From TrEMBL:
Keywords tagged on the record: Cytoplasm, DNA-binding, Transcription, Transcription regulation
BP terms from Gene Ontology: regulation of DNA-templated transcription
Superkingdom of this protein's organism: Bacteria
Domain TACO1/YebC-like second and third as annotated: residue spans: 79-235
Transmembrane parts of this sequence: none
Protein name in UniProt: Probable transcriptional regulatory protein A9C19_08160
Boundaries of every TACO1/YebC-like N-terminal domain copy: 3-74
Record organism: Bacillus weihaiensis
Gene3D superfamilies from the UniProt entry: 1.10.10.200, 3.30.70.980
Compartments reported by the entry: Cytoplasm
Presence of keyword Lyase: no
Length: 238
């Protein structure tokens, strides 16, 4: 699959190490998901997914608690969930998920980020058909064979199990996200290096060095936008 999730996560963590951007984005996402359902993760599976992901990014408990309390308090702050699709340099493909309280602002910002970095916006469906919704869960301290045995004992299916550096990464169907985590927890594993519901490209592409640098600038520009929650693409970055 070539996604190299550890490298991607380290790059994001490094970029956000000296800012509160990532915490603010998680706070907004937790609030929205908690408000859409129950503010209890045991009764709201979507919230549980977000909280598991927040944990892997070391989001402070105070941020999480504040967002959930805000949802419980009946705040009237409303956000729209939006998805944009577009193309980067050399026909590379990008999906942008956003949460916004100003649709016009977000659309303008996303379009500008594409336009200034060698890309262009596409219509809905122009890119997403080349991606698969995927659960990605990573752990440390086990081999791929160990993980396969754990999942088989729990009667849980996975699309793929790969060893990446010091981690084992499990790729599964989105509806298997909690089943995979529960299998690990039953085996005494409660810490995850990655816990994501993502859009995974069916085929990754490589770009020439100069084009790859331009593409990275595009992704950075999109991820820096306040309203952008997640950015997915099909480029193999080194």
């Amino acid at each position: 699959m070539g996604r190299k999730w550890n490298n991607i996560k380290e790059k994001k963590a490094s970029k956000d190490a000296n800012t509160s951007r990532i915490y603010a984005k998680f706070g907004r996402e937790i609030y929205v998901v908690a408000r859409q359902g129950e503010p209890d993760p045991e009764a709201n599976q979507a919230l549980k997914v977000v909280l598991e992901r927040a944990k892997t990014y070391n989001v402070p408990k105070t941020i999480i608690d504040r967002a959930i309390e805000k949802a419980k308090g009946g705040s009237e702050e409303n956000y729209d969930e939006l998805r944009y699709e577009g193309f980067g340099p050399n026909g590379s493909m990008v999906i942008v998920d956003a949460l916004t309280n100003n649709v016009n602002r977000t659309a303008s910002d996303v379009r500008a980020a594409f336009g200034k970095n060698g890309g262009n916006m596409g219509v809905s469906g122009s890119v997403s058909y080349m991606f698969d919704a995927t659960a990605v869960i990573g752990i440390e301290g086990k081999t791929a064979d160990d993980v396969l045995e754990i999942l088989m004992e729990a009667d849980v299916d996975a699309r793929d199990i790969l060893e990446e550096e010091d981690s084992v990464i499990v790729y599964g169907e989105p509806d298997q996200f909690h089943a995979i985590q529960e299998a690990f927890k039953q085996a005494g594993i409660t810490e995850f290096t990655i816990a994501e519901l993502t859009m995974l490209a069916q085929n990754d592409v490589s770009l020439p060095e100069d084009t790859a640098l331009q593409f990275e600038k595009l992704i950075d520009a999109l991820e820096d936008l306040e309203d952008v929650r997640q950015v997915y693409h099909n480029v193999e970055l080194v």
